[in-house]
Amino acid sequence: MLRLEARPAPSRLFAWASPVLSLLITIAVATVLFIALGKDPVRSLTVFLIEPFNGLRSITELGLKATPLILCSLGLALCFRSNVWNIGAEGQYLAGAMVAGGLALWVTEANLGLNRWVFLPLAIIAGALGGAAWASIVALLRDRFNANEILVSLMLVYVANLLLNWLVFGPWKDPKGFNFPQSVSFADGAAIPRIITGMRLHWGFVVALLAALGMWLFMSRFYLGFALQVGGLAPAAARYAGFSSRSALWTSLLTSGALAGVAGAFEVAGPMGQLTPYVSNNYGFTAIIVAFVGRLHPLGCVLGSVLLSMFLIGGELAQSRVGLPSALSGVFQGVLLFSLLACDTLINYRLRWLPAAPRPGAKAAQAAGATA
Amino acid sequence: MLRLELAGISKQYPAVRANDRVSLCVKPGQIHAVLGENGAGKSTLMKIIYGAVRPDEGSIYWNGREVQIANPQVARGLGIAMVFQHFSLFDTLTAAENVWLGLDKSMTLAEVTARIRVVSGEYGLPLDPLRPVHTLSVGERQRVEIVRALLTKPQLLILDEPTSVLTPQAVEKLFVTLRQLAAEGCAILYISHKLDEIRALCHHCTVLRGGKVTGEVDPALETNTSLSKLMIGSEPPELAHRPAQPGAVALAVRGLSLAKLNPFGMTLADLALDVRAGEIVGVAGVSGNGQQELMAALSGEDTRAAPGSITLFGQDIAAASPRKRRHGGLHFVPEERLGRGAVPTMSLAMNTLLTRTGAVSRSGWINTTAVRRLAEDLIKRYNVKAGGPGALAKSLSGGNLQKFIVGREIDAKPKLLIVSQPTWGVDVGAAAQIRGALLKLRDEGCALLVVSEELDELFEISDRLLVIAQGRLSPSVPVAQATVAMIGEWMSGLWPGNRPQPGASAGSAAVGQNTEVHHAAA
Amino acid sequence: MNETALLIAAMLASGTPLAIAGLGLLINEKVGVLNLGAEGMLLVGAVTGFAVSFHTGSTVLALGAGACAAAVLAAIFGWLVIWINANQYATGLAVSLFGGGFSAFVGVPYVGQKLGAPVTHAIPLLGDIPFIGPALFRQHPVVYLTVIAVAVVAWFFYRTRAGLVLRAVGESPESAHALGYKVRLLRLAAVLAGGALCGVAGAYLSTIYTPLWVEGMVAGRGWIALALTVFATWRPARILLGAYLFGGVTMLQLHLQGLGVEVPSQFLSMLPYVATVVVLVLISRNPIWLRANMPASLGKPFFPGG
Q1: Which of A76, A182, B127, C247 lies at a C-alpha separation of 20 to 30 Å from B371?
Q2: Torsion over CA of A220, A221, A223 and A229, rounded to 10 degrees?
Q3: What are the structural domains of chain B?
Q4: pLDDT for residue C175 is more than 50
Q5: Predicted local distance difference test score (pLDDT) of residue A366
Q6: Which residue in chain C has the smallest CA separation from A168?
Q7: Segment A93-146, tens digit of pLDDT
Q8: What is the C-alpha separation between A210 and B262, in angstroms, rounded?
Q9: Can you tell me the ipTM of this complex?
Q10: Structural domains of chain A in order of their starting residue, each with its CATH number
């Protein structure tokens, strides 16, 4: 019989192999699904796995989608390591998008004629403020009233969505937009500068990579980063050391809110160029998966973001080229996370064949035991 | 005919051979001790007898017939009952419900409640079946466990370290109960590392060391020294104990009162004590009487104390954080190693950063080379057996991790060191090293406050003794003038001028329970 | 008068899925398992129920199918969390995310489809009493079954030995294991039962309450149900009360929108979510009281054999 047996020390090999293994499992499941849906599995897998890397434009699109995922997942990795379960990054993303969008609208309508390079830091500040403010509600309610941050942050996602809805259906609706729920298009200067002309990839991608580097330094080389992680791994040890759980709560939530807000700002002022109800592609939730696939490590978050961007783009391509519904990529993301959680056990346990042959005298024991 | 016979029992775990061809014979009506230090394999052996663990080799014979004990139900069916060291109780349920859950389905709750009253009266174990367990003291909880075992009409009763939660007087009462049981024909397996108790109570003793049987003796014919030799393989180490030279008052506690933080805790009432430089003050007490709350208040994990109630060399630290207290020279070794004294999944090197921030610059940058060097240094100087400074804290044995943590705090050159349960779950060799290190620190002029549930240890290293009971502190007494009997009475709150609350120490048992769980994890 | 009666009736209907899901989560949490996958299980139950109802026309089959589909998801969750000891929070989130993706994918062909014409239900005689009749006795049978279910669960947990055992497992799985109880199997049973109930709640939403399928139609009710268990301090009767109150809040905002109140509809739609936050804040303020009522092992992994 196959049994799980505890390892004396966690396996370094599997800490790295687990995400790879779970990707392979997901591919296997995907193949089965494609066949069940009557689609050519080889073609479909190519669309999902190869096409997104095919050519310069495709690669820039990967980078474009990876940008918000990197930013959001970095913040979530910090939160989860600190045992602060901020599930509402989506809401903080939207809040950042709204504040940055509002700034862009004001710049547009006031005809300030700004340069994109001037707008970039402004957008970052606006997005960070919006996201951090939204996250601070969660922090405040947990700090003062002990309210569970999972549920509060989630409820605030629905509230943020409705708020955005109201803005684009109401006060910020483009009067010349044929009554569509969208804002005026932002002026050319109220946007994020592109890296390569003609491609949609913008400098926000570089900002995201720098943020990943900064987060890595913070987590591994700064005392505050150390303190936050101790708080997540062993709260009693954190109290013993004198690390304030309150400061851990606020630091992780404000940081993660700010990062998510900047992601929202980049999306709105970058590829979208206006505010609509579809500002988010569920990035805030996909980022949760990225964070886990990336082992809550900044480098892993970058790699995981590329992986999940591939899924997202693959889903879009599959819809147009193979006729598969784009909702399929959501299924694959879920399967990826499930298989990751299952494969992660192999880090701390190993599979062994243990003989289960009946022992002599077993029947006698059962007879004796049956007097219970 | 033998009640229970174990022949050639062996059990291998990934890193250690817990039992190595162990043989054991228990007669009906015999009180049989199993003696061994921490890690000798006693718990594993008992788990095998009780059915929680299957042996890799060997046979078990019950009343002459060979049996396979596949699980605890089978063991219970045979007539084996066990009272664990770490209680299997449910705090929010009543005593009767707890007992009922431990029995197989034959009786209703009402029948069980009635039987509890009968049995507890018969064996001198007073117990109110309708009280929720979280309101019971640790000693009362043990009675629930024992009554639960007795209700199964056992032919073999196994007791695992039963006296660690009892005052000396309560230990005597337990012995009376056990002798009564044995006289009725029940065989008793008594697991302990306390030599005096085994010599006072038991008819026969099997000694385990490193998973093997090193001796089978009649305890009445042995001395503590000879038993010790069998248990640890050599003479117990002698500690050099020079008389104390107390200096300035390092720690002064006056009128410390703290309301309990959780419903299962203990309120502290008007505590006062002094610790001077160059002396060791010991605090005795049964677990769950406020030790944890006092430690949290002194270490800075609880900062609710009234201003002025705690001073360090004259400075008020009642509301100071642990970091500020460390800057003032106060260092603390907590009773839970894994999870509080060290982060289990972090390396020894990173674990030094919990209380030693010398390698951290003003801006917060960590000098990882310096951190590693400190850990290497500690490992060498304090004889810590570990795979290097990068080894994870949870990969160390209890004794080695304790040596590392104690070393980490001593190396900080504290002016006041507070230690809680310095040698719990630690093997005899490491325990002696730790006690020696504490005495050396005292001789160098440091003030020490040691809280321990092991009276022997406190008598060995303290200069003055206090007792904590029901959240109150007794006056202090020089060790030379204290006797075990006197301290035992004080542990029940009976020191001059104090009136203990009726119904024994209530409400703090869960705190003690948590202690035990943390110890087990180490 | 009539309007208030209809409002009450709507409140009961609207609160019923919350009550069913909340009851399922209560069963999970009583044994110490925190199920953040409720939203996903509700979605899976909803899409399955709709599909089955669409193809067979039978509501009973739809509810059963919804229960089974969610139970399958619950089995995966249970295996990961109970045997593999994966982090309960992360696994629950995975279930919710997967459930969202899966239901969106499976539901694609059913968007915009209609089920058979809605049937009105009324208890004879009782349904005709003025005011109370329309208010209470003209509901779909599932609403009454929910009330009965709550009573049954309460009786089970507080009056039977099996219920006591489950409560003990939630209090201290280590102690229960030491006493010889099969903790992992018991927890799995509770997880499956809880998941099935979430599935029923989802199927009720898509086949009875608003007979249609739209991606994400559960709209956060799974999360609200989680908040409900805290609000109800893990007691079945209070789950019912809380569910109806929340149903009332949801109805209130529709009522206000219908009255043409001068507040933008989006803000009114925020009411249930804001109400959830307010409730959480009020309930969580006293950590000592919360700790005394919460199953002690909630959310923590259990390792038999230490």
Answers
A1: A76
A2: 0
A3: 4-232 (3.40.50.300), 249-339+415-521 (3.40.50.300)
A4: yes
A5: 40
A6: C266
A7: 999 999 999 999 988 888 877 888 888 999 999 999 999 999 999 999 999 998
A8: 45
A9: 0.86
A10: 40-323 (1.10.3470)
